[in-house]
Structure to design on (369 residues):
C-alpha cells in the first residue's frame, strides 16, 4: 500500500513538472485574439491549483473510463455526469489527459504528449455556451478515452494490426480536446452561407502556433485537422457536411458499401482518408464521442443535451421529433464502430424507442409533460 502511494505521488509530481514545462511554452506564444494574456495566465494558475484535486476526481471513476467492464455504461455515466452538474462541473481536462497519457503509455516528453497537455489547458479557457462549452469538451474527452480503450481491448488479441497506436491515440486525445475550441454557438452558417468546418478550422488556427512551438510533426497536425474537421455535423448541410461525407467513406472501408463513389468525396482535408482506413476509423470514433452523450447514455441525458443545444440557438422548441430526426436521419439509428456499438448501441435503441413513444402520445416539446 505504501509503495502504491509513493508511486502515485511520484506520478503526480511528474505531471506537475510537465504542466509547468508546457505552461512555459504557452506563455511564450502570442495567443492572438482568442484570449488576452492576463486571462490565459489566470486560467493556467487556476488549473495548476486544482490539478491535484481534479486528478483525484478522475481516479474515482478510473475503472469506468479505462476498465474492460462496460456493463450498464449508460446508467453509470448518466449518474456521473449528474454528479458533475451538481458539483459545478467535471474534472478539468489536464487531469484526464494526465491519466490517459499514463494508461496508454504515451511518452510524456514527446511533442504529441506536450501538444495534448497544451490542448487540454487551452480548452479550459472559459466558454459558457449552453451546449458547446467547457462541460461538453470534458464529456467528449471522457467518451473519446472510453471508446479508444474499448477499441483496443476488442482488437488487441486477434487483430493487433487494427489497434490504435500511441501516436494515433495522442492525435485522438488532442482532437477531442480542441474540436470545439473557441466555439461561438450555433452552427457554421454565416450571413446565410454555410461554410463546412468554419468553426472547426478556427479551433485549429488557435492551436497551430502552440503545436509548432513543441515541434509536433506536421503530418500529425494534418491528421488532427482532418479529425476535427469531420466533427462538423451541421444538420441541414446534408452531403456538404464533413461528418456525413466521412461516414460514407467509413461505410466504404468497413462495410464494403460501394453505393457511393467515395473518390469524389475524398477531397480537400478528406484526401487524407485515401488508403488510410485507420484515420477514417479514428474520425468515426471521435464523432461517436462527440454525439455519445446526446445519443447513447440515457433518454434523460438525451433530453438535457437536446434542450441545451436548441436553447443555445435561442429557441425553446426541443422535443422528441428533433431527437428522432437526428438519430434516424443523421445517424441512421446506429453507431458505426464496434466500440461505439458496444458502449452506446443498446441505449441508443432505447432512446429512439422512447422518442417515438413521446411523439405517439402527442408530446411536442420537452417543456411539457
Amino acid at each position: 500500500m505504501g509503495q502504491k502511494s509513493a508511486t502515485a505521488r511520484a506520478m503526480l509530481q511528474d505531471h506537475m513538472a510537465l504542466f509547468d514545462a508546457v505552461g512555459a511554452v504557452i506563455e511564450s506564444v502570442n495567443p492572438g485574439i482568442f484570449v488576452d494574456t492576463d486571462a490565459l495566465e489566470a486560467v493556467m494558475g487556476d488549473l495548476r491549483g486544482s490539478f491535484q484535486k481534479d486528478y483525484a476526481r478522475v481516479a474515482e471513476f478510473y475503472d469506468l473510463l479505462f476498465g474492460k467492464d462496460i456493463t450498464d455504461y449508460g446508467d453509470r455515466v448518466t449518474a456521473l455526469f449528474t454528479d458533475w452538474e451538481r458539483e459545478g462541473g467535471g474534472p478539468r481536462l489536464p487531469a484526464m489527459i494526465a491519466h490517459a497519457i499514463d494508461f496508454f503509455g504515451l511518452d510524456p516528453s514527446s511533442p504529441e504528449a506536450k501538444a495534448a497537455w497544451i490542448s487540454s489547458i487551452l480548452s479550459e479557457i472559459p466558454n459558457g455556451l449552453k451546449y458547446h462549452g467547457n462541460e461538453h469538451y470534458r464529456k467528449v474527452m471522457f467518451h473519446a478515452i472510453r471508446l479508444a480503450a474499448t477499441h483496443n481491448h476488442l482488437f488487441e488479441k486477434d487483430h493487433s494490426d487494427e489497434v490504435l497506436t500511441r501516436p494515433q491515440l495522442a492525435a485522438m486525445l488532442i482532437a477531442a480536446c480542441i474540436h470545439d475550441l473557441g466555439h461561438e454557438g450555433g452552427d457554421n452558417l454565416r450571413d446565410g452561407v454555410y461554410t463546412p468546418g468554419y468553426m472547426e478550422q478556427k479551433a485549429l488556427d488557435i492551436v497551430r502556433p502552440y503545436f509548432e512551438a513543441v515541434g509536433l510533426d506536421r503530418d500529425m497536425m494534418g491528421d488532427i485537422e482532418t479529425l476535427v474537421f469531420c466533427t462538423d455535423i451541421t444538420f441541414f448541410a446534408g452531403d456538404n457536411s464533413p461528418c456525413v461525407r466521412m461516414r460514407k467513406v467509413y461505410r466504404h472501408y468497413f462495410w464494403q458499401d460501394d453505393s457511393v463513389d467515395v473518390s469524389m468525396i475524398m477531397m480537400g482535408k478528406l484526401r487524407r482518408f485515401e488508403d488510410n482506413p485507420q484515420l477514417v476509423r479514428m474520425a468515426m470514433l471521435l464523432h461517436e464521442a462527440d454525439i455519445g452523450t446526446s445519443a447513447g447514455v440515457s433518454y434523460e441525458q438525451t433530453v438535457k443535451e437536446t434542450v441545451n443545444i436548441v436553447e443555445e440557438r435561442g429557441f425553446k422548441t426541443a422535443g422528441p421529433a428533433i431527437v428522432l430526426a437526428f438519430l434516424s436521419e443523421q445517424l441512421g439509428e446506429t453507431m458505426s464502430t464496434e466500440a461505439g456499438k458496444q458502449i452506446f448501441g443498446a441505449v441508443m435503441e432505447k432512446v429512439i424507442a422512447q422518442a417515438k413513444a413521446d411523439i405517439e402520445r402527442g408530446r411536442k416539446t420537452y417543456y411539457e409533460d
